Amino acid sequence: MGKATGFMEYKRETPKERPPKERIKDWKEFKNKFSEEAAKIQGARCMECGIPFCHSGLEIGGMVSGCPVNNLIPEWNDLIYKDKWEEAVKRLLKTNNFPEFTGRVCPAPCEGSCTVELNDPAVTIKANEYQIIEKAFAEGWIKPEPPEKRTGKSAAVVGSGPAGLAAADQLNKLGHKVTVYERQDRIGGLLVYGIPNMKLDKELVLKRRLDIMEAEGVEFITEIEIGKDLSLEALENNFDAVVLTGGATKPRDLEVPGREAAGVYFAVDYLKANTKHILGDQNEDYISAEDKDVIVIGGGDTGTDCAATAIRQGAKSVNQFEIMPKSPSERQADNPWPEWPKTLKVDYGQEEAIEVFGSDPREFLIMTEKIMTEKIDGEKVVSGVKTVKINWERNDENRFVPIEKPGTEKIWSADLILIAMGFLGPEKTLIEKAGIEQDRRSNVNADYGDFRTNVKGVFAAGDMRKGQSLVVNAIDEGRKAAREVDKYLHVPFTKPIYGN
């Protein structure tokens, strides 16, 4: 695929991002596109490998390897190299409902399993995907295509994140009447309130897709929480099937002295409040980092998003704590291809911190012992954080545990602490009221590939079933759950539309 010798002739190049010094002044997306000629050259680097692991979607070593939605990557790389862009977008949309989302926010496990990556930097798969879908929108190739025929069957989708939207989109294309319920005031789930605007523009990118889905017949209902404002039983009585895609929204808390002080927030609440502010809401819950010393506890993507948001708000300082060790700069022997490379990455938030403060904000192998507080007008308020450095060692049960290093205690100044330590699973209100079984990790108990819960006609997909994961995994789950719902509704004239 691509040019037979392209991977030998051309080097990997990625689109130039907006410079940190410029982009921290606004909330616009920081990524740029290739020129079409540059994209064609990068497409030419895709080699004729016998087994393209890039679209395998396998789980190896506890991590995804290759594309979970099985994107037909070599095919559309070949097509853009040959300047067949309209054909390329058709191949892309066969497996992915929302490449404009994954082309922006996916960590690209496909690139970690690219065959070229064995010896040279991987093909720019993510950038090529972004290029294809944005050209398709610009050319007017993406437009509403309502189903020609309705089946008379209906489905309710609970939750409007990537899994819910993918399930709704697929079911609607199959001719079923789909209604999506969202408890927030906007549709999009984590796409709107969990991912900041500089990574995914809400007014342009998200709204553009939602408008198309509405024009195709999907109904969106906001500010209705199923299990609280409306029972699951009511949905069962009014729809032929229900798909639960409420996400894994219960954040992991930090259980240390001083946690209750004013100035300590979960990352998701901080990011949501900031997005609402950007979108023009009169938001009483807005949290500003302006002129504050900010500590972000957690080293993942959400922690990075918090750091980047605080910088744009005008933070005085930003530090990011990570309890795990610093990753190596290159693959290690115990992390072979095609596993996801567990190497150190400097993400956009760290780049911006380096530009503003002169150093990477991350501290590794560090544990928070206590949140320091002071009384201001009778209220206990954050004043700092006490930490200690650690090592990971095996205990008597042969499990790795953090061991404190004596003499490494430190007090950090802090006015704002953001907890970005991941999520523990779905909230329980709906699950317990409806008698839905949970697995040992508290997720909804439904097998992958089947997606049925213990309640007849009720399915579950995405983080609510799988646990906290990637946007691309959620899209995969939503698509495949829709396929199983369609089988359950057993409409004889429905034609399959799945690319995997």
TrEMBL record:
Keywords: Amino-acid biosynthesis, Glutamate biosynthesis, Oxidoreductase
The species this protein was found in: Halanaerobium congolense
NCBIfam families, per the entry: GOGAT_sm_gam
Family annotation (Pfam families): Fer4_20 (PF14691), Pyr_redox_2 (PF07992)
Species classification: Bacteria, Bacillati, Bacillota, Clostridia, Halanaerobiales
Disordered: annotated span: 1-20
Alphabetized SUPFAM superfamilies for the sequence: alpha-helical ferredoxin (SSF46548), Nucleotide-binding domain (SSF51971)
Listed name of the protein: Glutamate synthase (NADPH/NADH) small chain
Pathway: Amino-acid biosynthesis
